[in-house]
Amino acid sequence: MPSCSIFVTVTDMQGKTGPSRGTDIGVAIALLVLDILLVGWLLYGYGITGWADGYSPNREPEAPDVARTAIWILLGGSVVSGGGLLYLRCWVAGVTQFLVLGAGAMLFASMPLTFPSL
């Protein structure tokens, strides 16, 4: 199984190689910061679009489309980055990517996709 060259690899008692636990946790923390920034940026865009929709009541709201786009971005990022890290045997970082980006996608999925008319 391949291993990324930037990781410090260790061999356990059964002869399996993979990144050291410290490197794995460091990558998880660095990616967690980026994930939180991404979710915050998408949430800000959703909020600004919803705010702007309030000033044009005759048009169809655009905020639900922004929420759907955010769901696809977060789910795609979860599968690609989490799956890639698990393939490289970075268990902590891979599972963290799946959980954080998946939770962000669920956050946007729970937002209203239709708004009540006043």
Q: Mind explaining what this structure looks like?
A:
The chain is mostly helical and 118 residues long. It contains 3 helices and 2 strands, in the order ββααα. Strands 1-2 form a two-stranded antiparallel sheet. The longest helix has 33 residues, at 21-53. The termini are far apart. The model has no long low-confidence stretch (mean pLDDT 85).
Sheet with most strands: strand arrangement: 1-2
Distance between the termini: 58 Å
- Main beta sheet: 2 strands, antiparallel
What global shape is seen? elongated
| Average pLDDT for all residues | 85
Strand content: 5-15%
The number of helical runs is: 3
What percent of residues adopt helix (DSSP H or I)?
55-70%
Cα radius of gyration in angstroms: 19 Å
Q: Give the quaternary arrangement of the chains.
A: single chain
The strand count comes to: 2
Give the structure's gist in a few sentences.
The protein is mostly helical. It is built from three helices and two strands.
Which keywords apply here?
elongated; 5% strand; mainly alpha; 65% helix
Topology:
Elements: E1 9-11, E2 17-19, H1 21-53, H2 63-87, H3 91-109
Antiparallel strand pairs: 1-2
Helix pairs in contact: 1-2, 1-3, 2-3
